Amino acid sequence: MATDKLFYQEQSNEVSLFNYAFEHQLPVLIKGPTGCGKTRFVAHMAEKLNKPLYTVACHDDLTAADLVGRHLIGPNGTYWQDGPLTRAVREGGICYLDEVVEARKDTTVVLHPLADDRRILPLERTGELLEAAPGFMLVVSYNPGYQNLLKGMKASTRQRFVALRFEYPSAELEQQILIKEAGADPHLAFKLVELAGALRRLEQNDLDEVASTRLLIYAARMMSSGMNPLDVCRCCLAEPLTDDPLTVQALMDVARIYF
Ligand code: ADP
Description:
Elements: H1 14-23, E1 28-31, H2 38-49, E2 53-57, H3 64-68, E3 69-74, E4 77-82, H4 84-91, E5 94-98, H5 107-115, E6 120-123, E7 128-131, E8 137-142, H6 155-158, E9 162-165, H7 171-182, H8 186-201, H9 203-206, H10 213-224, H11 229-238, H12 245-258
Parallel strand pairs: 1-8, 1-9, 2-5, 5-8
Antiparallel strand pairs: 3-4, 6-7
Helix pairs in contact: 7-8, 7-10, 8-10, 8-12, 10-11, 11-12
Bound molecules: adenosine-5'-diphosphate.
The site of adenosine-5'-diphosphate has 18 residues, from helix 2, helix 7 and helix 10.
């Protein structure tokens, strides 16, 4: 049975850079704002390279044990269960840690020896020292916009990675993404991308975050199915970005120029 390949619109030369990094067994760091295509890119590359992908959304309670694995209690006593990182290491898959700077600091202890030329994962609890299978690749991402002094990634960690910077796609590419991903007609896709451009230019003044490609896709889907365009702008492109009613109003003033 034929399976649909995941759609990914390349923005620059990231596909070939990733391929080179994979070939040379180098880990990759992707930085970019939320909803700009980082996760989709990694999923696309895993599919292209035919590698199993283990994705972990990192949060501030995520510990090394969540990545590596832990002993669990079953009907026949305790047994060891590999975490996603260990599975990728054993199988030669891709382990993608999304928003890696959120994770607890103890995770760096397991990431460092895997992210340099040693490519090993010490499993303290079982006494194993795993050598990563040849296809294993570590990919991490973070959003530099969320960075603060406490959460910044240490130089000793970031200097172990080949780093790519993602931005929101150019207007032409973003329009293509809306057409392919949301089934929007070209005129609607064009108008939404124009609006996004205008909203994004407001960023410095009012907002921490701007409308992402992800939100534009939501908006395109809802408008394409007949929902009132201004209602869509409010619930997809204004309310998700701010809690301040005055800022919502300002965003809607811009939306009214386009819809
Ligand atoms: P991030 O991981 O950067 O937060 P995602 O990769 O989850 O963002 O992207 C959000 C959504 O936007 C995806 O589910 C996909 O529908 C769409 N998208 C963003 N960029 C692209 C792209 N370059 N090609 C195809 N779809 C994209």
